[in-house]
Design goal:
Elements: H1 3-30, E1 62-67, H2 69-72, H3 80-87, E2 93-98, H4 104-114, E3 125-131, H5 148-163, E4 175-179, H6 186-194, H7 206-221, E5 232-233, H8 235-247, H9 263-280
Helix pairs in contact: 3-9, 4-5, 5-7, 8-9
Length: 306
């Protein structure tokens, strides 16, 4: 008998079974087991859990400082950013989103790029501090120069990206804070620009910067789409008062080049933010907050603690 006749019944049986095996494998791929692992922990402040049931990554809530070079430079020793980061250590992460040379038009361009969308699993923004005006107040023909109304409209747009329910970046739990620009010493600023190579024409006026500081206060006093006003730290007023009380009105102790702040200038800002938080948002005042992670003695046996 030929050998192929011996194996023909077996070959026929395999031909019948192979299609069924393929269907069974496709079914398994489309419907994985339901108990493969579930997310554990509070989802709003955590990242996605792994596929093995592990707890998700804990994301620290943030304080975001958004502004121009005065914000960018606030992480110098004694600067407001550095002091706030120290005060909130292990409680809130303080993030520097300062952009040297930016006015509010430029700021809006980058804000739409880095501001989280409501649906993204990223750290929550507990406080959003907005600090513009120093460059918007530049005098024409500076490309940074804005009119008062343009500046105020841009500030409203910045705030509305966070507070408006219709915004894709809406964050109802975020507390907003506005800072006014500090004063300028236009004579010192003009001398600084004139000494550069090539020399630049004067681009700041003290009275104009004061008007922009008042504009920030006016925007803060308006009710937003969420029905709330935004508290304001009057940086301009605080530094001017300190200069009058302690320096005979001279600003050199607070401004290093007629425009940017010294550590003493930043100290006025830090004190203003501290007072505002204590009065407006006491639950976010650093001394009223608990650390996110436990004390180190939590990880040693009770009998070995001291």
């Amino acid at each position: 008998m030929p050998r192929w006749l011996i194996y023909s019944p077996l070959l026929a049986l395999l031909a019948l079974l192979l299609p069924r095996i393929d269907l069974r494998q496709s079914s398994m791929t489309a419907h994985p087991p339901a108990d493969h692992g579930e997310q554990v922990g509070p989802a709003p402040s955590s990242s996605s859990a792994s596929s093995h049931g592990a707890k998700p990554t804990l994301l620290m809530d943030q304080v975001v400082m958004f502004g121009d070079s005065i914000t960018q430079g606030a992480w110098i020793p004694g600067g407001t950013g550095a002091r706030l980061a120290d005060a909130w250590q292990r409680k809130l992460d303080v993030i520097n989103r300062g952009f040297s040379g930016y006015n509010t038009v430029m700021g809006l361009e980058v804000l739409r790029q880095f501001l989280p969308r409501s649906t993204e699993p990223v750290p929550k923004m507990a406080i959003f501090i907005v600090w513009f005006g120093a460059n918007d107040a530049a005098v024409s023909p500076s490309p940074q120069s804005m009119t008062l109304e343009e500046f105020k409209a841009n500030l409203r747009t910045i705030l509305d990206l966070v507070r408006s329910p219709s915004s894709p970046h809406h964050s109802p739990h975020t507390q907003l804070v506005l800072l006014t620009p500090p004063p300028v010493d236009d004579a010192v600023r003009a001398a600084d620009l004139g000494a550069r190579v090539p020399a630049r024409t004067p681009d700041r006026e003290a009275a104009r910067t004061e008007a922009f500081a008042k504009a920030v206060q006016e925007v803060g006093a308006e009710e937003g789409p969420d029905g709330r006003k935004v508290p304001v730290v009057d940086v301009w007023g605080r530094i001017m008062q300190k200069a009058r009380d302690e320096e005979g009105g001279k600003l050199g102790r607070f401004l290093r080049d007629g425009l940017h702040l010294t550590p003493d200038g930043y100290q006025c800002v830090t004190a203003g933010i501290s007072e505002l938080l204590y009065g407006e948002y006491p639950h976010l005042y650093w001394e009223n907050m608990e650390q996110v992670f436990p004390h180190w003695t939590h990880y040693i046996p009770p009998e070995k603690r001291f």
